[in-house]
């Protein structure tokens, strides 16, 4: 099940970001992008993430947000831009040629981490967003 390995990698990335900021940090949420052609089941990744997050320091309350990127391609013969789909054997609906170049749909990226920073010298908590 490669979804568990993906969830673990996401948690490791979040853990590295927390560690780089020092002590007293907790992740509130992490946002990831999965391309439609990545062959990843978002529900399985979410289940694995929730099952493992307590094992990673600062991640026990972290929420996972998954966004799917729709595939887009240029066809091989005429360079039409279209959405490749299994129903038409991934062929261009305009001319019938196959995929020449996939423009998007293979993403697998952590794009945003929201963290909470507790300052020992101050009683109030601060929030920070750490992007790519």
Could you walk me through the main structural features you see in this protein, from its secondary elements to its overall organization?
The chain has about 130 residues and is an alpha+beta fold. It contains 2 helices and 7 strands, in the order H-E-H-E-E-E-E-E-E. The protein folds into 2 domains: about 90 residues, hypothetical protein PF0899 fold (2-Layer Sandwich); about 35 residues, no CATH class. Strands 2-1-6-7 form a 4-stranded mixed β-sheet. A hairpin with a 6-residue loop joins strand 6 and strand 7. It is elongated and about 65 Å long.
Please give the alpha-carbon distance between the first and last residues.
26 Å
Q: Could you say what the CATH topology of the largest domain is called?
A: hypothetical protein PF0899 fold
Helix/strand order, N-terminal first: HEHEEEEEE
**What would the average pLDDT be, to the nearest integer?**
91
Q: What percent of residues are in strands?
A: 35-45%
Q: Return residue spans where pLDDT drops below 50 for at least 5 consecutive residues.
A: none
Rounded to an integer in angstroms, the radius of gyration calculated over CA atoms is 19 Å
Instruction: Provide the CATH top-level class of the largest domain.
Output: Alpha Beta
Please tell me what the overall shape is.
Answer: elongated
From the helix content, strand content and strand pairing, which structural class follows?
Answer: alpha+beta
State the share of residues found in helices, binned by percent. Answer: 10-25%
Strand order of the largest sheet: 2-1-6-7
The largest β sheet comes out as: 4 strands, mixed
| Count of runs of 4 or more consecutive helical residues | 2
The CATH architecture name of the largest domain reads 2-Layer Sandwich
Whole-number count of domains: 2
Number of strands: 7
